Amino acid sequence: MNSLLKKILVVLYNYNKSSIFRRKIKHIARHNQVRRQKSDKSDIKAHKTLWGALKRSISPLWLLVFQKITGHKSIQYIPEDIYYTVVEPALNNKQLSKAFADKNFYHQYIDADLLPDIIIRNINGVFYDSDFNPVVPETYMEAIVNQEKEVIIKPAIDTGGGKGVDLFTKEHEGTFKNKEGQLLTRDYIQKAYRSNFVIQKKIDQHPYFKQFNPTSVNTVRIFTYRSVNDEQVHVLHALLRIGKPESITDNQASGGVSVYINGNGKLNNYAVNKMGDKFQEYGGVELDAVEAVPRFSELVNLAGQIAQKDYYSRLLGFDFTIDQSGQIKVIEVNNLNNEINFYQMNHGPLFGEFTEEVINYCRISKKSFLIDFEYE
Q1: In a domain, 84, yes or no
Q2: Among 42, 88, 89, residue whose Cα is nearest residue 67
Q3: Is the dihedral of CA 182, 187, 191, 196 positive or negative?
Q4: Which of 28, 37, 76, 292 could form a disulfide with 265 if both were Cys (CB 3.0 to 4.6 A apart)?
């Protein structure tokens, strides 16, 4: 592909992404009744100067919205469109991201005991058992029916916002149905998922996590940054993510909330949804009265250890939970399209003390770009 065509594709893609995110922040600003005040003038100017070094136009709404929600004034809040069109493409190699994000690939660099139990996996159209032994397609349903009462099926790649994640429960007659009444059959799987998916045992989560919402697998999201200056991994944010009632996923995009977790594993006294609304209690639980997240320091250490193994991504979002027996489980490692607003709504600027380091690096570095889709 010649350089002119590449530039045209990048410009069109970035323009579209920026337009989407700017409409989004306008909607959030209206919802929170954010108004520009005369006293904001100097902050807006400094914010524009800081992030304008990345050669993009800067909307002040990101600054004003995050400052109002958190009550924390700082010019370091990164606009979401700048993150997606400049920062993430510079810090993470998007051409390789999907391979590392493939849930069927996790077993190559994460201890199997830390991962959800796989019943059947599909890789590039071929069925395998949990140990990567090929299985006959006509018989894999027997493994599900004979072993489990509840199973989760999800795409191996790109489950952002809980997309494509479904729970099937065994009926008395030995069939599996989801909450819409859809039967789990080979024909349904072929039509809905085609290839590259996993069928997992449902995780029975630890009582600590279950107390907030028993229907969703609630997770600890840990956001790490591997420094461009010294290659050390730093944990920038930790959040508890809770699904909305009756949901099986914990995603904010699907109606859930998130709560900041401090360095001692204690929750903040409020949760935030995607619009910036705050909740002092959730699921009937007073957040400031809850004990610390169990095994939190181990989760932090584990995130740092795994982050060192992904040489192509400096920014990673880890989703951890703990099962009923107290075992840590890695649900997902996000290296592409990391949702960032909930970090800044809960805990302030995304990069904090590393903001200028990141800007200086991204200002002069090449950006990765990927157009990825299937066609017939």
Answers
A1: no
A2: 42
A3: positive
A4: 292
Same domain? 212 vs 286: yes
- Which domain does 98 fall in, by range? 94-109+206-361
- pLDDT tens digits, one per residue of 14-62: 999 999 999 999 999 999 999 988 888 999 999 999 999 999 999 999 9
Q: Report if residue 85 sits inside a domain.
A: no
Q: Are 254 and 162 within one domain?
A: no
Asked whether residue 14 is assigned to any structural domain, the reply reads: yes
Is residue 277 within 8 A of residue 29, CB to CB? The reply is: no
Q: pTM surpassing 0.70?
A: yes
Separation of alpha carbons 371 and 207, rounded Å: 42
Kindly state the tokens that stand for 270. Answer: 């409020």
Helices then strands, counting H and E runs in the chain, come out as 12, 15
Flag whether pLDDT at 158 surpasses 80.
no
HSE, side-chain direction, 13 A CA sphere, residue 224 = 27
CATH at residue 290 = 3.30.470.20
Instruction: Fill in the DSSP letter of residue 266.
Output: P
Residue 118: strand, helix, or coil? strand
Per-residue pLDDT, 190: 86
| Confidence grade of residue 147 (pLDDT, cut at 50, 70, 90) | confident
Q: Alpha carbon 373 to chain centroid distance?
A: 21
Q: End-to-end alpha-carbon separation of the chain, Å? A: 21
With beta carbons less than 8 A apart as the criterion, state whether 193 and 224 touch. no
Whether the CA torsion 192, 122, 371, 320 is positive or negative: it is positive
Strands (DSSP E) along 148-304, which ranges?
Answer: 150-155, 166-170, 176-177, 197-201, 219-226, 233-242, 257-260, 271-272, 278-279, 281-282, 285-286
Residues 252 and 180 both lie in one domain: no
The 10s digit of each residue's pLDDT in 296-305 is 999 999 999 9
Residue 217 has pLDDT above 90, yes or no: yes
